[in-house]
Design a protein that fits this description.
The complex is a heterodimer. By secondary structure, chain A is an alpha+beta fold. Chain A is built from 4 helices and 9 strands; from the N terminus they run E-E-H-E-E-E-E-H-E-E-E-H-H. Classes of the chains: A alpha+beta, B alpha+beta.
């Protein structure tokens, strides 16, 4: 099975799925329908080519193009004193054990602070993006000093948007929880749930995961 | 989701957040104050508790405000005061405050509120004359500003429940403490 994505001039997203064999294997229609139901797009056209082996989906929601289009390996949230308050990894590529993640977080906090002093231009707010051979690290710091950073694959797009969405989830499900103590590790189920939903939606938005 | 662009205006912000029934808000706040008076009996103690409650609210509220309003770092305290008056009060209370009475150094100003949803239908009895009914608001401002590294003192100058014509709170910036990495130690 092959899938390809094309953006047309009218900003609609076209997804073409074609099955390699001329006769679609049993269950493929069902799985394609399942796929369609996961996509946050409105199905405008569903064409079936001759032989019943090609489907086209045209989305009228150009906004999904703006979603992050690559895999995020792990997410860290650190409080204003540099302590790790949340860590989540997605897949084995990003996995580190607890001690390593704590060490990474404090290391990043220090590097971020040092970079502000090293910067040749005044008023630098710290490192936004670190690009390496095998990964990119995007960082977002709120004006209150809380840092959200994500390790993702190279060339990941729109991770900053994703980090802002995660910041909003933090303000909703963590800070508004009266039993959450400020600056302490986050143990809020609603936050985990909604975060998982956002990441999942983000992955499904562009097929090919 | 479109990438975050310019900060929103006060009205746009107010329209974009979920709102609650104003009566419920007023009644809940009134119940809190009454309960505190019953528990603590001393008007000064109640004032302190309201301020502390406001402080705890403010420390959490500021991130919500920053996330939803997309404001960038303010250049000086004047800009901060404007943002609080136009966007902050509008977003959370639905009313705009005016900023007046700046002192010479630009570190002290007054927020004047003509309209205050906390005090709808409220009249202070003679037994509670020292009560700062809206003291939670001063705590909120103090808590919120502390989270963005500004230490302030907030006091009430005018109070409609005491017979004045508007609510005026005086905010004084005492210290600006930017979080600096303690890297300059020479030991």
């Amino acid at each position: 099975m092959e899938a390809s994505l094309a953006a047309s001039p009218d900003l609609s997203l076209q997804l073409h799925i074609s099955l390699s064999s001329s006769a679609p294997p049993p269950g493929s229609t069902a799985s394609t329908e399942l796929l369609l139901s996961l996509l946050p797009t409105q199905l405008l056209e569903q064409q079936q080519a001759r032989g019943g082996a090609t489907f086209s989906l045209i989305s009228n929601q150009p906004s999904c193009v703006a979603m992050a289009s690559a895999a995020i390996y792990s997410l860290f949230i650190i409080n204003k004193s540099g302590g790790l308050i949340y860590y989540k990894d997605y897949g084995s590529a990003g996995r580190t054990d607890t001690n390593d993640s704590l060490r990474l977080a404090s290391l990043w906090h220090s590097m971020h602070a040092i970079s502000q002093q090293l910067s040749p231009t005044p008023g630098c707010a710290g490192i936004d993006l670190l690009q390496a051979d095998n990964f990119d690290l995007h960082c977002f710091q709120s004006l209150t000093g809380t840092k959200f950073f994500a390790v993702c694959e190279t060339g990941a797009q729109n991770i900053e948007v994703l980090l802002k969405v995660i910041y909003e989830l933090y303000t909703d499900f963590v800070l508004k929880n009266p039993f959450y103590e400020m600056e302490m590790p986050i143990r809020c189920e609603l936050f985990d749930l909604n975060l998982a939903q956002v990441i999942q939606k983000d992955r499904v938005a562009l097929l090919g995961r | 989701m479109p990438p975050p662009t310019a900060p929103k205006s006060g009205d746009a912000l107010f329209a974009s957040v979920e709102r609650v029934n104003a009566e419920l808000f007023t009644l809940t706040y009134g119940a809190i104050v009454r309960q505190l008076l019953t528990d603590l009996e001393e008007v000064e103690e109640v004032n302190k508790q309201l301020d502390q409650m406001g402080y705890n609210i403010g420390t959490r509220l500021v991130d919500e405000f920053l996330a939803k309003s997309n404001v960038s770092r303010c250049a000086d305290f004047k800009e901060t005061a404007d943002v609080i008056a136009k966007l902050g009060f509008k977003m959370f209370l639905g009313v705009t405050a005016t900023v007046t009475n700046w002192d010479a150094e630009g570190t002290s100003c007054s927020f004047v509120l003509e309209d205050n949803p906390l005090v709808d239908f409220v009249e202070l009895p003679d037994t509670c004359q020292g009560l700062q009914y809206c003291n939670v608001l001063s705590g909120v401002i103090r808590g919120a500003l502390e989270m963005v590294s500004m230490k302030t003192e907030v006091t009430w100058v005018r109070d409609m429940l005491r017979g004045d014509d508007a609510y005026e709170m005086r905010v004084k910036l005492t210290k600006q403490v930017p979080e600096e990495y303690p890297y300059k130690d020479d030991d």
